[in-house]
Fold this protein.
Amino acid sequence: MEIKNICVIGAGIMGHGIAQLAATHGYEVNLVDVNEDILKKAKNAIEKNLDRFFVVKNKITAEEASDILNRIKLNPDRDSAVKGVQMVIEAVFEDMNLKQKLFSELDSICDKSVILASNTSSLSITEIASKSNNQERIVGIHFFNPAPVMKLIELIKGKNTSEEVFATSKQFSESLNKTVVTVKDAPGFVTTRLIYVLCNEAVKLKMEGIASTEDIDVACKLAFNFPMGPLELSDLVGNDIYFHIGEYLGEALGEKYKPSPLLKEMVEDNLLGRKSKKGFYNY
Ligand SMILES: NC(=O)c1ccc[n+]([C@@H]2O[C@H](COP(=O)([O-])OP(=O)(O)OC[C@H]3O[C@@H](n4cnc5c(N)ncnc54)[C@H](O)[C@@H]3O)[C@@H](O)[C@H]2O)c1
């Protein structure tokens, strides 16, 4: 099956990046969000990003940027936005019940040939698909932030994902000029499990007083050539996000994955990182 038209559901950080990326590679994109204000902000952000990171750097012309933008149609009405597309990619909040409900609704309104993909960063694809009748068409396509720039896609095969859907999803991902790694459906997959463990361990080092915030970050940057230290990264991603991932991984994989008590305390005190202007650092 050839994919030409896609629908992206959720126009937040990831959704608008995925829409920009797909439109840049020639796909027609319907971008959906429950919040119309977020939809408008998404298109403005895409316009600015195209200009700042691509036109100004002479990677594309102003005319190409305008064509990309024209390929993205905003639509607050999900059911009409999925009409005529060959693939739907969801990027709504990381919440199992929300995703299960969304996929079972999509499964009942989309033509049987339509691929339904989740951009979840940690939740089981098999479990997300479990409330749907046609589970063979549900797959995980995990993009990274910012989606137009990051080189990797982690492709996740649920227990019931068909070979054909997986192969088409791989072709689609490669058409976006990404390197694809294929991963079995397991909590946190490869990337989220590894980065969470590193960040949570760094929080434990801080809690145990082994080193200061700055020294933990500098140690990782210089010892491992990381572009960013784990505590800086936790602030950037959101300490609440890592906390929820930790709760999910702890439940699924065992006690040692549980979030450290300091991470929990910081979330309770609204020390979420950049988004609340305070975390391991002040912003
Ligand atoms: N932020 C990251 O770095 C990152 C990286 C990879 C994957 N992810 C995953 O991508 C997904 C989205 O994350 P995000 O950071 O973009 O979140 P976000 O909060 O920025 O955006 C989520 C958007 O979904 C919308 N939404 C919620 N319910 C909806 C519904 N039923 N229908 C339509 N829109 C709905 C919200 O209004 C919001 O705009 C999550 O599953 C997350 O785990 C995030």
About this structure: The beta strands are 5-9, 28-32, 72-74, 87-90, 115-118, 138-142, 152-157, 179-184. The longest helix spans residues 36-55.
